[in-house]
TrEMBL record:
Residues 1-27 form the signal peptide. Keywords: Signal. This is Lipoprotein. It comes from the Bacteria.
């Protein structure tokens, strides 16, 4: 009986010893965690376009030279992270056919205030005027004039996280 007990103890000890010597499982690399709202880039791009279209509709002039692209999150958005993205849209509106460009900008400012946009920047230096609106949904709309010729419209989306990629089909 002693021999059987020793054999069982020896087997248990060897078993435990081998378990402790086994190769550790490969750990998954830590994935960064983001607390940003998840939004598809196409949805953020559509919202940027909508904000620019609002300005074009008020001025009754088509948007020209659109340049829309994803960028890193901006410090002005309150979030700087490698995990997120923002969408930037840059457009130009011709003002040659606008009879009262200064009055039109006042109409835009009233439109923004009706929509509860904050307007933290509204300044004029010489013949240039700069206005900035912050929307309730985290977008920024910048207007810069170059009277009497053009209005530059720059729209930045809020900072978002991209959705996780779906399963790929093979």
């Amino acid at each position: 009986m002693k021999t059987l007990s020793r054999a069982v103890l020896l087997a248990a000890a060897v078993s435990l010893g081998l378990a402790g010597c086994s190769a550790p499982e490969k750990a998954e690399p830590a994935r960064p965690v983001s607390n940003l709202e998840v939004r598809a880039e196409s949805d953020a791009t559509a919202e940027v376009q909508r904000h620019a279209d609002d300005i074009a509709d008020i001025i009754e002039t088509p948007l020209e030279k659109p340049q829309v692209r994803p960028i890193s999150c901006r410090p002005e958005a309150g979030k700087t992270t490698e995990l997120g993205y923002s969408v930037q849209g840059v457009y130009q509106l011709g003002l040659e056919r606008v009879s009262d460009p200064v009055g039109t900008l006042e109409v835009i400012k009233m439109f923004w205030k009706e929509l509860d946009y904050q307007v933290p920047i509204d300044k004029t230096v010489g013949s240039r005027r700069t206005m900035r609106a912050l929307t309730p949904d985290g977008y920024t709309v910048d207007l810069q004039t170059n009277f009497p010729k053009a209005l530059r419209v720059t729209v930045y989306s809020a900072c978002f996280s991209r959705p996780a990629p779906g399963p790929s089909s093979s």
